[in-house]
Amino acid sequence: MPRFKCKCGSMLRYSDIPCEIEYKFISDADFDNYHGSIDSEELYMKMGSFIRCPDCQRLWVFWQGFQNEPVEYVKAGYFT
Ligand SMILES: [Zn+2]
């Protein structure tokens, strides 16, 4: 089962389909290659994924796919 422990201690499980904590993204340049009707499966395969910890809001971005380690992004306070 795909999962890992966030630095806040929460266990992040991302095997559910659909997954409540997984988000998909694509660069504007890559999306610009799509025109007209889009094959949703083809687009889905082109998108990257990140996991958002529901407890601390950290983002774990899988820039190089799930087979590689994610990059951590920590929420910073606007007024701090
Ligand atoms: Zn967390």
Structure description:
The protein has 80 residues and is of the alpha+beta class. The protein is built from 2 helices and 6 strands; from the N terminus they run βββααβββ. The protein has helices spanning 28-31, 40-46, and strands at residues 3-5, 11-13, 22-25, 48-52, 59-62, 71-73. The strands form 2 sheets. It has a 4-stranded antiparallel β-sheet. A two-stranded antiparallel sheet has the order 1-2. A hairpin with a 5-residue loop joins β1 (3-5) and β2. The chain is globular, with a radius of gyration of 15 Å. The model has no long low-confidence stretch (mean pLDDT 93). The structure holds zinc ion. Zinc ion (ZN) binds next to loops.
Query: Are any ligands bound, and if so which?
Result: zinc ion
Q: Calculate the mean pLDDT score and round it.
A: 93
Strand content: 25-35%
**What is the helix fraction of residues, given as a range?**
10-25%
Number of strands: 6
**Structural class, from helix and strand content?**
alpha+beta
Distance between the termini: 37 Å
The radius of gyration computed from the alpha-carbon positions, rounded to a whole number of angstroms, is 15 Å
State the helix count.
2
Looking at how many chains there are and whether they match, the oligomeric state comes to: single chain
- List the strand order in the largest sheet: 3-4-5-6
Overall geometry:
globular
The major pleated sheet works out as:
4 strands, antiparallel
* SSE succession: EEEHHEEE
Uncertain spans, ≥5 residues at pLDDT below 50? none
